[in-house]
Design brief:
80% helix; mainly alpha; 0% strand
């Protein structure tokens, strides 16, 4: 159950990162509110998962899901650049996440 909660926390991190981008420096009220709500939810779920999972594992996976998910959202929705080096870097993060999961 802790792993499911951790993945959900990571998905919420992607949501708040994207809504923070849309808030344009917290100048737009609705995206700012969405950011704040999902930051709180993400941290609450991360904290809950840390009751069972080791700190290093939980935090690494949470931040990795957020980083790679935000990278994908940036490419698909925001039209950010997708070159070979950036894709390889994201794949390396995913590889690290898999190794972290296998180590626990």
């Amino acid at each position: 159950m802790a792993w499911i909660i951790l993945v959900l926390a990571g998905i919420f991190e992607i949501i708040w990162a994207y809504s923070m981008k849309l808030s344009e420096g917290f100048t737009k009220p609705i995206p700012t509110l969405i950011t704040l709500i999902f930051v709180i939810l993400s941290f609450m779920l991360l904290s809950y998962s840390m009751r069972v999972l080791p700190l290093g594992t939980a935090y690494s996976i949470w931040s990795g899901i957020g980083a790679v998910g935000s990278f994908v959202i940036g490419i698909i929705i925001l039209g950010e650049q997708a070159n070979l080096i950036r894709i390889v870097a994201a794949l390396m993060i995913v590889g690290g996440l898999l190794l972290m999961k296998l180590s626990t």
